[in-house]
Amino acid sequence: MNKKQYAVIGHPIGHTMSPFINKRLFELEGIDADYSVFDITPEELTIKYREQLTALDGYNITIPHKQTIIPLIDSLDKKAEIYGSVNTVKNSDGVSKGYTTDPNGFLKALEAYDIPLKHSVVIVGTGGVARVMAFEAAIAGCAITIAVRESDLHDVAALAAELKLKVHGISVDTCKINRLDHFEKSTIDLLINATPVGMYPNSDACPIDDHVISRCAHVFDAVYNPLETTLIKKARANGAKAVGGMSMLVWQAAVSHEIWNGAVFDREDIEKICADSAEELKKTF
């Protein structure tokens, strides 16, 4: 049997944790596979798609190709259609299908730490990660508040409008981050940091004031380096359940393997890969 071939594509790809994480996942599955890194510029995507990507069993996609890959592949999964974004492709019998694993990676990370997605959810940020989390919270029927810097008020208004258009009957408000001190609900059921604030090397930074953190029952921080951010430390010190972005990063990779090979992974196995990935990151910085 020929060794299976997989890859991640992006530009600039730089240092990526994808090979480390995916090779560990293939080992857990007992699958003999190569996982390569392809730095493909936007101008090269169409020709590289024909020359390299169609020959693979599957591949992951990062910036800037998550949207531009869509016209090249044969079909999309339902969630990929909703999000208009693809980060995983499966090739089977000459036919390619695109998926987005970020939403399920987020949901599985919450589930692994017994963090419910319900009631009052505050999301800090308005980029691509914030959009994924806002849509999943909306689909789950949460009352959503999206908090941003003043410079992002236009973008967050557009995101709120898109949510209301695509998920009918939802509750979504927007505000500046410094207005969260005046948040009308006494308890925030889930606070989500979808900004890079607190990422290495600025690990001491925290996106939210202590007063707001003290009112959070649960916290999710999309930052994955360091493994335990200042926000997570403060939340746990207040007795809140908190999980960092490394869990989502590994779980969304695990979902790719579910798509490619029907794999099933235990929470303990994923937690071990998260810890080992954090140690691997330290070697790079």
Question: What's this entry about, in short?
Answer:
The protein is an alpha/beta fold.
Structure report:
Helices cover 38% and strands 21% of the residues. It is an alpha/beta fold. The chain folds into two domains: 4-100, Leucine Dehydrogenase, chain A, domain 1 (Rossmann fold); 104-246, Rossmann fold (3-Layer(aba) Sandwich). The strands form two sheets. A six-stranded mixed sheet has the order 2-1-3-5-6-4. Strands 9-8-7-10-11-12 form a six-stranded parallel sheet, sandwiched between helices. Strand 5 and strand 6 form a beta hairpin. 44% of the residues are buried.
| Average pLDDT taken over every residue | 95
Largest sheet: 6 strands, mixed
DSSP strand tally: 12
Return the CATH topology of the largest domain. Rossmann fold
Our Rg estimate from Cα atoms comes to 19 Å
Strand order of the largest sheet: 2-1-3-5-6-4
CATH superfamily of the largest domain: NAD(P)-binding Rossmann-like Domain
Number of domains: 2
CATH top level class name of the largest domain: Alpha Beta
Please, how many helices? Answer: 10
CATH architecture of the largest domain: 3-Layer(aba) Sandwich
> Cα distance, first to last residue?
39 Å
